[in-house]
Design a protein that fits this description.
InterPro entries: CYSTATIN_LXN (IPR049897), Cystatin_sf (IPR046350), Latexin (IPR009684). Residues 1-24 form the signal peptide. This is Latexin isoform X1. The structure is a single chain. The protein has 278 residues and is of the alpha+beta class. The protein has a single domain (4-23, 38-267), classed as Nuclear Transport Factor 2, Chain: A (Roll), CATH 3.10.450.10. It is built from four helices and twelve strands. The strands form three sheets. It has a five-stranded antiparallel sheet with strand order 3-4-5-6-7. The chain is globular, with a radius of gyration of 18 Å.
């Protein structure tokens, strides 16, 4: 049985704001195996096929995976998406092994605030059934995605400001224990959220639902490739197990090449936790 550290945080079930309130962390504790479904969901709910209740865990979990996929392909310091609503969902067992979810849902761009338009998307999310963990496969379609303002001018100004070796960005606890994110740190919070989506997409299964709870630290690194290089330590909240999992990652970004994750390292928070989630 794998062992992880957990900490209880008061988090929203649906991602609706770029800086959800985060409670002060209580003393750390170690728990048993991760990946259990919420107590309100039965085994029959998780294994159900056909039309699904859009507000229930199986539909929301699959839509969250599609959201991570969307952010890895289209996120930036000035664009990061949050799940607004699942409108329709269904599931079917596939002959090759696994379960495929068909989804109709909407997302909003957190960088645009509450006044930003909702974006309607559809997706096929396949959770393969294999002996070794294999991340879900996603096919995503979003209406009018290219019509959303890419804020190219803001991205260029941000890049020019921080690409200098003298910028030396360093910060901790974003958001802080009161849920606050300073205006200067907002782009770095979004960058961390996009970079964390690469991990959350890879680690997702039918027994997880990941959200980034907090950026524990960010430190700018030197780069010879004209890329903004940042080392993040992020805390990922798995809603079903209520675990907080810590990852260190090295990410790069430029307006031309987008966000790339170069290295990831699971960070155990208990002395006897020796294996990463998957």
């Amino acid at each position: 049985m794998k062992t992880f550290c957990s900490v209880w945080l008061l988090l929203s079930l649906v991602e609706l704001s770029p800086a959800p309130p985060v409670s002060q962390e209580p003393p750390l504790a170690c728990t048993g195996a991760p990946g259990h479904a919420p107590q309100s969901e039965t085994a029959e709910d998780m294994a159900s096929t056909g039309d699904l209740e859009p507000t229930h865990y199986p539909a929301r979990r699959a839509a969250t995976v599609a959201l991570h996929y969307l952010n890895t392909h289209h996120g930036s310091p000035f664009r990061v998406f949050g799940l607004q609503q699942v409108h329709k969902a269904s599931a079917e067992d596939v002959a090759a092994g696994g379960r495929k979810y068909k989804l109709d849902f909407s997302v909003t761009d957190w960088a645009s605030g509450s006044e930003g338009p909702a974006l309607r998307c559809s997706a096929d999310v396949l959770f393969p059934q294999t002996e070794r963990h294999s991340g879900p496969e996603v096919q995503l379609r979003c209406e009018a995605l290219q019509q959303i303002n890419r804020t190219a001018q803001e991205e260029h100004a941000f890049y020019q400001r921080y690409i200098s070796p003298d910028s030396a960005v360093s910060a901790r606890d974003i958001p802080d224990s009161y849920g606050n994110v300073s205006e200067e740190m907002q782009p770095f919070w979004r960058l961390a959220r996009v970079a964390a989506s690469f991990i959350m997409l890879r680690e997702s299964s039918e027994r997880t639902e990941f959200n980034m709870a907090q950026v524990a630290s960010v430190a700018q690194q030197g780069s010879s490739e004209e890329q903004l290089m940042l080392e993040f330590v992020v805390l990922l909240h798995d809603f079903p197990s209520q675990e907080i999992i810590q990852w260190k990652l090295l990410a790069s970004w430029s307006p031309d090449r987008g966000v790339r994750v170069l290295q990831t390292e699971w960070q155990p928070r208990c002395p006897h936790a020796t294996k990463p989630p998957n």
